[in-house]
Amino acid sequence: MNSIPSGRFVVLDFETTGLSPAMGARVIEVSAREVVDGRAGHEFLTFVDPDVRVPAEITQITGITTAMLNGAPTSAVAMRQLSSFIGSSPIVCHNAGFDRRFYEYEARKFLNGQPVRAFCTLLLARRIFPGRNSYRLGGLIDEMGITSPGRLHRASADTFVTAHLFDRICADARSRCRAEHFDHDVLHRLQRVRIAGAHDWLATLGSPAPSSRGEPGSLGRGTLNTSSLN
């Protein structure tokens, strides 16, 4: 994963009993997989006892049953360990709004108001690989020849393939801009660039911005459109 910028990222995935913690959905499995300076590191992986039954439709999707969660750590225990593992590192998720929402809800006692910085491979893929019929995780990895080590919709397999998808996204993005300008900040800003203009925006990095009046070394600013994040 040599194309990922230097530093530490944590690829995060939750399996849950539903779509929203505000509607009572709970985490039942979590994987957090670190990537440090482009190298795969440790993985934090655990079932979580949600203190509710796992709905049949969730078992059908994930294969996780209520019985499998017997004896698993409670949410409080798991989230304390998870927040310690993640620390201040940015998280990487496919559809990050979903995972960040659950993380901020279930680990709120341990975050102490600390903002969670997230990189979303769904948002980034839409900008780097425009025109796809689908941006589902399974479809993207099939197109790119990324092999899953296990069943998708299980947390460990999902973080594994998301890490490799993130690397492919970074490789393509690097090829479209001057490599010395490709870093965490560029990725964060790229998520908010207008989809149709993303490739052009990357190409302007390192070029003088119009307002710089030709001053050398200025970074091109591109066009941000916060109304089209998806």
Commentary on this structure:
- With 230 residues, the protein is an alpha/beta fold.
- It has a single domain (8-179), classed as Ribonuclease H-like superfamily/Ribonuclease H (Nucleotidyltransferase, domain 5, 2-Layer Sandwich).
- Helices cover 37% and strands 15% of the residues.
- The protein is built from 9 helices and 5 strands; from the N terminus they run E-E-E-H-H-E-H-H-E-H-H-H-H-H.
- The protein has helices spanning 56-62, 75-86, 96-106, 108-111, 121-128, 137-144, 155-175, 184-190, 198-204, and strands at 8-16, 27-36, 39-47, 91-93, 118-120.
- Strands 3-2-1-4-5 form a 5-stranded mixed β-sheet, with helices on both faces.
- Helix 5 packs parallel to helix 7 and helix 6 packs across helix 7 (155-175).
- The model is unreliable at 211-230 (pLDDT under 50).
Secondary structure blueprint with pairings:
Blueprint: E1 8-16, E2 27-36, E3 39-47, H1 56-62, H2 75-86, E4 91-93, H3 96-106, H4 108-111, E5 118-120, H5 121-128, H6 137-144, H7 155-175, H8 184-190, H9 198-204
Parallel strand pairs: 1-4, 4-5
Antiparallel strand pairs: 1-2, 2-3
Shape assignment: globular
* Tally of alpha and pi helices: 9
- SSE class: alpha/beta
Taken in chain order, the helices and strands follow as EEEHHEHHEHHHHH
Quick one: biggest sheet?
5 strands, mixed
Report the sheet-strand fraction. 5-15%
**Would you identify the CATH architecture?**
2-Layer Sandwich
Radius of gyration from the alpha-carbon trace, in angstroms: 19 Å
What brief labels describe this structure?
alpha/beta, 230 residues, 15% strand, Nucleotidyltransferase, domain 5, 9 helices, 5-stranded mixed β-sheet, single chain
